[in-house]
Every structure is written in C-alpha cells, then in structure tokens.
Amino acid sequence: MIAWLKFLHITTLLVWCGGLLLLPLLLARADNPVRAGEAARMRIFAHFGYNFCVSPAAVLATIAGGSLIFARWVFEPWMFAKLALIGGLVVLHTYVGHCVARLGEEGYVRPAVPPALLLSAGLAIMTAILLVVLAKPHLDAALMPDWLQQPLNRQLLLPPAPSR
Ligand code: HEM
C-alpha cells in the first residue's frame, strides 16, 4: 500500500513539477512567436497543459502525499518544513495559472513577475523540497514558537445557531 502511494506521489509530482518548470518557459516564448499560428497553439497548449495535466497532477500528488503522512505517521519537524516549502510551490502554481488564464483571455500580457524569475523560484523550491525529503534533517522542535508546540485549550469559535 505504502509503495503504491509513493509510486502515485512520485509520478504525479513529476508531472506537477515538470509542468511548473515548462509553463514559465512557454510564457517567456509566448510574446515572440516565430511562425504564423504559433501564438494560438501556445495559448491552447498552456491552457490544456495547466488545466488538464498540471493541476490534476498537483491534486493527486497532494492526496497521495497527505495519505503518506498518515500511512507512515511522519509528524516530524522536517515534514513541517517540507509542507511550508510546498506552500511556496502552491503560490507559484496559482500565479502561473493566473498568467496562463490572462494569456488565453487577453492574448499576450507580460507577467508582472518575469518568467525567468518564476522558473528560478520553482527550481529553488523543488530543490529545497528534495533536499529536505531525502536528507530528512533532524530539526529541533524548539525552533517552532511555543504556541505551535502545545495545545492552548481554547474554545473553538462556533458560528451562532440559526434563528428559527
Ligand atoms: C503536495 C504535498 C506533499 C505532501 C503532503 C508530501 C508528503 C510526503 C510524504 C508523507 C512522504 C513519505 C515520507 C517518508 O516515507 O518518510 C513523501 C515522500 C516523498 N516526497 Fe512528498 N509530499 C508532497 C509534495 C512533494 C513535492 C512537491 C516533492 C518534490 C518536489 C516531493 C518529493 C517527495 C519524494 C522524492 C519522496 C520520497 C522520499 C523517500 O522515499 O525517502 N513531495 N512525501
């Protein structure tokens, strides 16, 4: 079971991460098409790639990874460091999606963040995640603030009961 989850996790994250590296390259190229019709093909490719490959792969990688947390019971500081880095990847994923949507709807619009920076950020985050997950460094739990280390026994804020 764990082997299958890892297989699903790694195959889907290859598609996810590969797509997040490819799409900024495509965004960089989209303002400078060489042949007639190339710009339209790039827009369609980016749209289908993002919506039907990269995003579903991201969801499957997250489901498989989330299941692995419980299957392998890895509630360790390195895992929380990995999850924080994944937050960065999700921000990148969302921004790339925003650029792809604008490319499709408005024709080429130069992204506020240069594609080269998107590519470098993706590479940096992915390398950091791989280092953390493969080296599984021993991180001192004391690095976390106190409020994250113990239950605060506070009452949850519940919505008011509906009036009848
Ligand atoms: C989307 C959220 C993610 C979650 C919740 C998650 C969670 C996990 C968990 C729990 C494991 C098993 C760790 C173990 O067996 O000790 C794992 C394995 C792994 N993850 Fe993720 N992960 C996520 C995303 C990623 C990403 C984006 C990458 C790469 C850039 C990645 C790379 C790996 C690798 C290479 C392994 C295999 C490590 C090994 O077997 O030693 N994961 N992941």
From TrEMBL:
Q: Which residues form the signal peptide?
A: none
According to the record, cofactor stoichiometry and binding are noted as: Binds 1 heme b (iron(II)-protoporphyrin IX) group per subunit.
The answer to whether UniProt assigns keyword Iron to this entry is yes
Its Enzyme Commission number(s) read 1.3.99.-
Kindly list the residue ranges recorded as spanning the membrane: 7-28, 48-71, 83-104, 116-135
Q: What class of enzyme is it?
A: oxidoreductase
Its keywords, alphabetically, are:
Cell membrane, Heme, Iron, Membrane, Metal-binding, Oxidoreductase, Transmembrane, Transmembrane helix
Q: Which is a Pfam family this sequence falls into? A: UPF0093
Q: Where in the cell is it found?
A: Cell membrane
Q: Does the keyword Iron apply?
A: yes
Please list the cofactors this protein needs. Answer: heme b
Tell me the membrane topology, using the record's own terms: Multi-pass membrane protein
Q: Which pathway is recorded for this entry?
A: Porphyrin-containing compound metabolism; protoporphyrin-IX biosynthesis; protoporphyrin-IX from protoporphyrinogen-IX: step 1/1
Catalyzed reactions per annotation: protoporphyrinogen IX + 3 A = protoporphyrin IX + 3 AH2
Relate the protein's function as given in its record: Catalyzes the oxidation of protoporphyrinogen IX to protoporphyrin IX.
Similarity comment: family membership: Belongs to the HemJ family.
- This chain belongs to the protein called Protoporphyrinogen IX oxidase
Lineage, highest ranks first: Bacteria, Pseudomonadati, Pseudomonadota, Alphaproteobacteria, Hyphomicrobiales
